[in-house]
Amino acid sequence: MTITVLVADDQAMVRAGFAAVLDAQPGIEVVGQASDGAEAVRLAHELRPDVVVMDVRMPGVNGIEATRALQTPPRSSDYVPRVLMLTTFDIDEYVYQALRAGASGFLLKDALPDEVARAVRVIAAGEALLAPSVTRRLIEDVAKQAPARPVDEHLLSALTEREREVLVRIARGRSNQEIAAELFIAEQTVKTHVSKILQKLGLRDRVHAVVFAYDTGLVSPAR
């Protein structure tokens, strides 16, 4: 099955470069290109690509605003694409905002062609993706920006105690292997817990589980 992609970036050379790289990959087809966020939203609803590769910083409607618009479609449409954000730096001041807007992953603009293709495939499959150099520092950045708040027991009530323990560790940037070692359980068991957490909380992926953990007060910079 072919993965369709829309590329949005205000720099024509960057936009064309990503489009060329992706079009050359088997099983991936670039169906459109946009020069700003407003055009990205319009073309996305018109072309309905599986993945929108979106630059964070664009004039007019930026990538965050465009992502937010795509994640909250009008009542007349049920179309919600996956969004892969492009960043110039490994930690961007807009990263946390973009996650809250609904982005499923981040990729550096200097990524190699194979990394770009893999990122699109991962996002299209419903997984979250962060460039390797971003992951840990992103968690730290979220911790700094998320204000400490009381634990929202209502939102967390669907989780078991073990699932809470796993969610705390996800929010602290632990891998499944690290969580398994800390809790003395099998890695496959961790995967099962992660799946149940996402399902119970209505979260799309692991990245948004991090944001949820801080938003509900389960994890804070002080804990």
Question: How would you describe this structure to a colleague?
Answer:
Helices cover 49% and strands 13% of the residues. It has 223 residues and is an alpha/beta fold. Strands 2-1-3-4-5-6 form a six-stranded parallel beta sheet, with helices on both faces. The N and C termini lie far apart (44 Å).
List the helices and strands and how they pair.
Elements: E1 3-8, H1 12-23, E2 28-34, H2 37-47, E3 51-55, H3 63-71, E4 82-87, H4 95-101, E5 105-108, H5 113-124, E6 129-130, H6 135-145, H7 153-156, H8 161-171, H9 176-183, H10 187-201, H11 206-215
Parallel strand pairs: 1-2, 1-3, 3-4, 4-5, 5-6
Helix pairs in contact: 2-3, 3-4, 8-10, 8-11, 9-10
Structure summarized in a few sentences:
The chain is an alpha/beta fold. It has helices at 12-23, 37-47, 63-71, 95-101, 113-124, 135-145, 153-156, 161-171, 176-183, 187-201, 206-215, and strands spanning 3-8, 28-34, 51-55, 82-87, 105-108, 129-130. Helix content is 49%, strand content 13%.
| SSE pattern | EHEHEHEHEHEHHHHHH
* Termini Cα gap: 44 Å
Contiguous uncertain segments of 5+ residues = none
Count of DSSP helices? 11
Using the 3D structure, state the CATH architecture of the largest domain. Answer: 3-Layer(aba) Sandwich
Give the class from helix and strand content and strand pairing. alpha/beta
Strand content: 5-15%
**Biggest sheet record:** 6 strands, parallel
CATH homologous superfamily name of the largest domain? Response regulator
